[in-house]
Design a protein that fits this description.
succinate dehydrogenase; 15% strand; oxidoreductase; Succ_DH/fumarate_Rdtase_cat_sf; cell membrane; alpha+beta; 21 strands; binds flavin-adenine dinucleotide; electron transfer activity; 17 helices; Flavocytochrome C3, Chain A, domain 1
Length: 650
């Protein structure tokens, strides 16, 4: 079988020139000291575009405006506080060591590098661990109502892949509470006139002028009006691309358009195949489902995961005696038990289901059982800790989790891949920064639970405000681009023509039908486990599907009013391009690591086998045209502080 991508080309290696060397604990301090500063009185002369108002964008916009910059900010929701971050449930990590259980910045650093299966940048991860401590102080000062223990200190719980309790939480609504904190701070700046907020406005292209990011092309989703916005720098905080898979735990509107358009304009895309499958989601219930629901990982603190020992045992859970149950995570990984990292828990669930021991419709589920916790803690305590999650489960499945174990199954949840950024969070397009889930982040090949919120807020509140200042101080712009610049003209025409092409196509298929087909293909071939044959099959099919999309898609309505079908079609078109890069990246990485499990690369015990000699690098892909072989740039990863070993959680 052959694909148009039989060979991609290899470009110059990427070197992150911004990360200082020297002792790792001193690097961020040193970098900050070496940065040029913008005088407070000069900051108001600089305009910064921030696309996105989730935890990363909301915190960045508020902080930059508070520092004195003029911020122009965008989101496609009707309010900044409806960004997808609002859905985060379980918590946020920080190395506060309130529990005195052995935690430290060093341990959080170590856990994150190891949890990411040795595919992240040490300098970044160490900085993340350092900054984690400040995030909690910042959020408490804003009034975020974190849970507290009896003595009044903030309470914590454990998440997967760690043996300390460092996850701060606000019941099962941590994302919502943190986002309200960031939104409050942003609202203050909107009221003060330092942030110009554009809700219901979608960025559709990046303006690169004389080699620098100088603005965006955006569409007002209510009127269809296309406008250009100019700035001295552009920040993308546009979230992850998990919805390429159609079914995921992400908000329905989350999409890849902003990062993909930036990629097309020169920003390299790093590790696109590193997607995270979360082990505890409510199983899919039928073919017409359009969304999957997460049951927070925090439930694994007290819930026990099991399946029947015998294949094909369809008895109700309460009729299966204790000695006929297999608490497989506790059996296989006694030191971490139900709290092994997500990639490991997900694969283990798939394995027991593949053995015919799965439960529920189609055998695609495992039990998450609270019977022991209820007996030990009592219903009131369980309700206090997890009440809203139990209620959500009951509403969706019509089963009472206090009476009967929950059924869970892995699902697409997060993307570790994203735009390549240097230590300063700058992409390969000068003046274009990417923060939060939109960048390829600090999580390597597998993100540990409760560390996305930590990274988004570290980027937005602390890292970007410092590094962006350095960029602006070194690259002051004396001009403001205008609409008659050829690059602006070209970008606006491209956006307008594409929307016209979608609206005028007299096809017979909905954008959703293409998205669903693409999602199924990605899940089957580039999902929980991947093979060379499957990936080649997908690489053959995706371009065909893309061609079919442009021939057969039908978008009703006009471009001058709210038209969700048009929005959707435009996003699906980008998913159809990104999907190809995801599969190619997965094909080229013939090792298994973290969330990327290549069936051909496993240990004798069936665990993922990394190939450090060959693949200790970030794969950063350069765009050369739709359907054309991209260029692979490798950023070599050094592990001087956490030595790569075969990850063991036994
Ligand atoms: C159900 C669920 C639960 C989770 N729970 C946790 C948890 O407990 N702990 C944890 O650490 N992580 C958790 N995560 C992960 C975490 O929530 C996300 O990684 C994080 O919130 C992403 O934040 P962000 O600011 O990068 O992006 P988002 O919150 O996704 O925000 C993206 C923003 O960009 C805007 N945008 C995107 N594209 C465009 C465009 N083209 N034009 C204009 N605006 C655009 C959107 O309008 C939005 O404002 C969870 C994820 C899910 C799905």
């Amino acid at each position: 079988m052959s694909t148009p991508y039989e060979s991609w080309t290899t470009g110059e290696p990427l070197v992150d020139t911004k990360a200082p060397d020297g002792p790792i604990a001193e690097r961020w301090k040193r970098r900050r000291f070496e940065m040029k500063l913008v005088n407070p009185a000069n900051r108001r002369k600089h305009t910064v575009i921030v696309v996105g108002t989730g935890l990363a964008g909301g915190s960045a916009g508020a902080t930059l405006a508070e520092a004195g910059y003029r911020v122009v900010q965008f989101c496609y929701q009707d309010s900044p506080r409806r960004a997808h971050s609002v859905a985060a449930q379980g918590g946020i990590n920080a190395a506060k060591n309130y529990r005195n259980d052995g935690d430290s910045v060093q341990r959080l650093f170590y856990d994150t590098v190891k949890g990411g299966d040795f595919r992240s940048r040490e300098s970044n991860v160490h900085r993340l661990a350092e900054v984690s401590v400040e995030i909690i102080d910042q959020c408490v000062a804003q009034g975020v109502p974190f849970a507290r223990e009896y003595g009044g200190l903030l309470d914590t719980r454990s998440f997967g892949g760690v043996q300390v309790s460092r996850t701060f939480y606000a019941r099962g609504q941590t994302g919502q509470q943190l986002l309200l904190g960031a939104y409050q701070a942003l609202s203050r700046q909107i009221a003060a006139g330092t942030v110009e907020m554009h809700p219901r406005t979608e960025m559709l292209d990046l303006l690169v002028i004389d080699g620098r990011a100088r603005g965006i092309v955006a569409r007002d989703l209510l009127t269809g009006r296309i406008d250009t916005y100019f700035a001295d720098a552009v920040v993308l905080a546009t979230g992850g691309y998990g919805n390429a898979f159609y079914l995921s735990t992400n908000a329905k509107n989350s999409n890849a358009t902003a990062v993909w358009r930036a990629h097309r304009r020169g920003a390299h895309f790093a590790n696109p195949c590193f997607t995270q499958i979360h082990p505890t989601c409510i199983p899919r219930s039928g073919d017409h489902q359009s969304k999957l629901t997460l049951m927070s990982e925090s439930l694994r603190n007290d819930g026990r995961i099991w399946v029947p020992k015998k294949a094909g045992d369809h008895r109700p859970p309460q009729d299966i005696p204790e000695d006929e149950r297999d608490y497989y995570l506790e059996r296989l990984y006694p030191s971490f038990g139900n709290l092994v990292p997500r990639d490991i828990a997900s694969r283990a669930a798939k394995n027991v289901c593949d053995e015919g021991r799965g439960v529920g419709p189609g055998g695609q589920g495992v039990y998450l059982d609270f019977a022991d916790a209820l007996a030990r803690m009592g219903r009131a305590a369980v309700e206090e800790k997890y009440g809203n999650l139990f209620e959500m489960y009951a509403r969706i499945t019509a089963e009472d989790p206090y009476e009967r174990p929950m059924r869970i199954y892995p699902a697409i949840h997060y993307t570790m891949g994203g735009l390549w950024v240097d230590y300063d969070l700058q992409t390969t397009v000068p003046g274009l920064f990417a923060i939060g889930e939109a960048n390829f982040s600090d999580h390597g090949a597998n993100r540990l639970g409760a560390s996305a919120l930590m990274q988004g807020l570290a980027d937005g509140y602390f890292v970007l405000p410092a590094t962006l200042g350095d960029y602006l101080a070194r690259h002051p712009h004396t001009d403001t681009p205008t609409a008659d610049h050829p690059a602006v003209h070209e970008a606006v025409s491209a956006v307008t023509e594409r929307l016209y092409a979608l609206l005028s196509n007299q096809g017979d298929r909905t954008p959703d039908s293409f998205h669903r087909e693409l999602g199924e293909l990605l899940w089957d071939e580039c999902g929980m486990s991947r093979t060379e044959a499957g990936l080649r099959k997908a690489l053959e099919r995706v371009p065909q599907l893309r061609a079919e999309f442009w021939e057969r898609v039908r978008v009703p309505g006009s471009g001058e009013t709210l038209n969700q079908s048009l929005e959707k079609a435009n996003r699906v078109a980008d998913h159809l391009e990104l999907a190809e890069l995801m599969c190619l990246d997965a094909l080229h990485r013939t090792e298994s690591c973290g969330g990327h499990f290549r069936e051909e690369s496993r240990t004798e015990q069936g665990e993922a086998a990394r190939k450090d000699e060959e693949f200790s690098y970030v794969a950063a892909w350069e765009f050369t045209g739709t359907g054309r072989p991209p260029v692979l740039h490798r950023e070599h990863l050094d592990f001087a502080h956490v030595h790569p070993t075969q990850r063991s959680y036994t």
